[in-house]
Amino acid sequence: MSIGANIKLKRESLGMSRAELIDRSGVSIAQLSRMERGEQNNPNLETLVAISTALNTSIDEIVFGEQSTSSIYLSKTIDSLPIDKKTFVKDVIKMAVMISSSEKLEKGLKEKS
User: Fold this and answer.
1) Is residue 113 classed as helix, strand or coil in its secondary structure?
2) Are 7 and 30 in contact, with CB atoms under 8 Å apart?
3) Which of 15, 66, 97, 100 has the fewest CB atoms nearer than 10 Å to its CB?
4) What is the pLDDT of residues 60-87, one digit of tens each?
């Protein structure tokens, strides 16, 4: 299955509308529509993190349609945390992805100069 098909399947299995996923993830209507239709199969890591977080699932499940043993362990560990710690861990992951993206962008800009 494609990434978009996996997203749609997970979203529908949770009874979540496309609008609700857009609201929770911050991904644009156009991008999510393209992904679910299979027109965009290479979303960036930040988008995958946002969608998987909104769907309360792993990136493995979004990309491959199933969770790896390590992601299942990590997911269970995070789920066992109190809500404030769970939110903190998810925020740290988002920040790490954003920092990594900005570092890549900065490196690309330096290489062009």
Assistant:
1) coil
2) no
3) 15
4) 888 888 765 666 677 778 888 899 998 8
